[in-house]
Amino acid sequence: MDPVPPPSAQRFSLNDRIIAVTGGLGQLGHAFAVGMVDQGAKVAVLDVTAERAAIEARYGARAADPNLLFLVADVTRRPALERALAQIVEHWGAPPHGLVNNAGIDTPPDAPPEVSGPFEDFPEAVFDRVMAVNTKGVVLCCQVIGGAMARAGRGAIVNVGSIYGVVSPDQSLYEGRRQNGQVFFKPAAYSVSKSALYNLTRYLATYWAKAGVRVNIVTLAGVFNQQNADFRARYCAKVPLGRMATADEHAGGVIFLLADDASYMTGAELVLDGGFTAW
């Protein structure tokens, strides 16, 4: 096979690329979508809602950008993803060149006791929901949108992983809750759901290599989002850089993996965690 031509002189360019990002109305999804548009991409923002008020609340004036297409899609429902793909093709005339599997749900530090108690008592229904969104949802998106890219003979997929898919949650980070007489354990469900994505990434990277589709994963750490002060202090003490990330800091890594600059990178993990997993 002849070598692929080198990347263009414009670094991290996504000019004329169509990218689908799931969970696009979330904090990270917004940062990814805006960052990709700024690099020349046309971005389909998939989320469970497309209410104009929610879109404008997150995107502000950028909501009117013609390079942003807002679509309703529940990642746990294959027909919804197939409709979204058809809408993208109808709107821009081609299937996506890239897919960012960002949609996910977690148990935050201020979660109520019924979903943050001991492992032995964690609700089965909540576990099923986390797995459905965080793991099954990625599989379905890859089947539908990744499959379309493979048929087109090009594309890049970025799965959004987590430090808690690589290492176990440090339960001492939540000691402030327990000191106040509350029961809190970071649940296993999120870790289980995210850890599955690492081998899915490797599987699809080898499965679609000859079809011209690259598949990589980013390992992200805590993003500042008005968490309580005690949790932030404990968390930041564990990070070599001494702070939480901003959503924008994660966008650069995602854009790199989508761009031709990463043309020889597949089946790999890009760690953006401030050094959290380095010790």
Question: What characteristics describe this protein?
Answer:
alpha/beta, Rossmann fold, 7 strands, 279 residues
Can you summarize this structure?
The protein is 39% helix and 14% strand. The chain has helices at residues 27-38, 52-59, 78-92, 124-152, 175-179, 188-207, 229-237, 247-258, and strands at residues 18-22, 42-47, 68-72, 98-101, 155-162, 213-220, 269-272.
Percent of residues in helices comes to 25-40%
Global geometry: globular
CATH superfamily: NAD(P)-binding Rossmann-like Domain
Q: What's the number of helices?
A: 8
Strand/helix succession: EHEHEHEHEHHEHHE
Topology:
Blueprint: E1 18-22, H1 27-38, E2 42-47, H2 52-59, E3 68-72, H3 78-92, E4 98-101, H4 124-152, E5 155-162, H5 175-179, H6 188-207, E6 213-220, H7 229-237, H8 247-258, E7 269-272
Parallel strand pairs: 1-2, 1-4, 2-3, 4-5, 5-6, 6-7
Helix pairs in contact: 1-8, 3-4, 4-6
What this model shows, in words?
With 279 residues, the protein is α/β, with parallel strands linked by helices. It has one domain (18-267): NAD(P)-binding Rossmann-like Domain (Rossmann fold, 3-Layer(aba) Sandwich). The chain is built from 8 helices and 7 strands; from the N terminus they run βαβαβαβαβααβααβ. The protein has a 7-stranded parallel sheet with strand order 3-2-1-4-5-6-7, sandwiched between helices. Helix 1 links the parallel strand 1 and strand 2. The protein starts with 17 loop residues before the first strand and ends in a 7-residue tail after the last strand.
